[in-house]
Design goal:
The protein is α+β, with helices and mostly antiparallel strands. The protein has a single domain, classed as 2-Layer Sandwich (YaeB-like fold), CATH 3.30.2310.20. 27% of the residues are buried.
Amino acid sequence: MGYGFQGQGQSPPAYAVRGVRFHDGARLEFIEEVAYYEDIQRGLGERFRVSVEAGVALAAALPHSGSPHKYGTRRVFPKRFPYAVIYMVQATEIVVFAVAHFKRKPGYWSDRRRDG
C-alpha cells in the first residue's frame, strides 16, 4: 500500500496519512482469511480483502479515528465481516498487529507488539 509521509526528520501531524506496516503474523492471518473466504464462495475472498484494505486506508488517513483498544492500540472494523483490524499509531506509520475475528481469543496478538 502506498500510504506515507514525506517529511525531513519530522513526525506527521495527527491528521496526516501515514505509512502502513503489517506485523508478519497479521499479514499471514489476513492472507489465510482471504483464502478461506474465497474457498467458501468465489469472489468472497476479494470482497473481504477490499473491506479490510478500506479499513486500513481509513486508519492510515485518520490514525486516531479507530476505537481505542487494549495496550495502546486502536481498531477499525471492516464492513460486512466480523473482524477488527488492530493497529498502533507510531510517529510515521501505523503498525497492524492483527486482522482478528470477533470470536477469536481476545488479545491473542498482544505479544506481537514486542516484535512489531
